[in-house]
Specification:
Layout (H helix, E strand, L loop, with lengths): L1 H8 L1 H11 L2 E2 L3 H21 L7 E5 L6 E4 L3 E5 H7 L3 H19 L2 H24 L7 H25 L1 H16 L4 H8 L10 H5 L6 H10 L3
Parallel strand pairs: 2-4
Antiparallel strand pairs: 1-2, 3-4
Helix pairs in contact: 1-2, 1-6, 3-5, 4-5, 5-8, 5-9, 6-7, 8-11, 9-11
Length: 229
């Protein structure tokens, strides 16, 4: 429990380690100017909807995928791909603002904090299992006993991750509703419309469907259009 308690009291430390884990970086000057325009749209919409925005630390991930994510207690990260696609026009900036609002929804709902705490909760267990696998678990009989013991120790962490993962699609719908309410439909619906043709994998197997963290984009779009603003 010690690492999880530590990051609960010192979330900035945990956030910096997640920057390294996800290979994210601070914004360049051009990216700062673009994100400032995104923030202006967010602040205007938040003021109109009566929602208080949290303090956001913006990050960029140098990959071509069109995506964004929230992590730790205050991080919102855009990929270079999504910035390149939507950074040229006012309509594109509104889409970026809609995506950012969705990620802010994850922050406000504590989805990212729970993921962070689960990660640090599992660290001692995973370290201990790795150490045991390279040392004592190689000894006949004794190794078998310790292997069974590590399974028992790991079980609570695995159950916690499974339960959290089982609610991931619900969390996505919640974040969509928050974005829809805050933005009054600006940006997020258009973004979902844009990506609807590339959200499904060809030949999806049952196991792939079962492990999806995000609902199908068409259903997200439906839920967003039905949600009251």
């Amino acid at each position: 429990m010690a690492p999880a308690v530590f990051v609960a009291y010192f979330p900035s430390f945990a956030a910096s380690t997640f920057d390294i884990r996800f290979s994210t970086r601070r914004l360049s000057q051009r990216e700062k100017e673009l994100v400032a325009k995104v923030e202006a749209v967010l602040e205007d919409c938040a003021k109109k909807s009566g929602i208080k925005l949290p303090q956001i630390v913006w990050r960029v991930q140098d990959i071509g995928e069109i995506n964004a994510m929230a992590y730790a207690h205050n991080r919102v990260c855009f990929t270079r791909g999504i910035l390149h696609k939507y950074g040229d026009t006012q309509a594109g900036i509104e889409r970026l603002a809609g995506v950012a609002a969705h990620e802010i929804g994850h922050l406000r709902n504590w989805d990212t904090r729970i993921n962070m705490l689960l990660h640090y909760l599992a660290l001692p267990v995973n370290f201990g299992i790795g150490l045991a696998n390279t040392t004592i678990n190689r000894i006949p009989i004794i190794g078998l006993i310790f292997t069974l013991a590590t399974i028992v120790f790991r079980l609570p962490c695995d159950i916690a991750h499974f339960l959290n993962g089982s609610t991931s699609q619900f969390q996505e719908y919640q974040a969509d509703r928050f974005a829809g309410k805050m933005m009054n439909g600006v940006g997020i619906s258009d973004f979902l419309e844009d990506i609807s043709h590339m959200s499904e994998l060809p030949g999806d197997k049952f196991s792939d469907w079962l492990m999806r963290t995000h609902p199908p984009t068409e259903l997200r779009h439906d839920e967003l259009t039905k949600a009251p603003n």
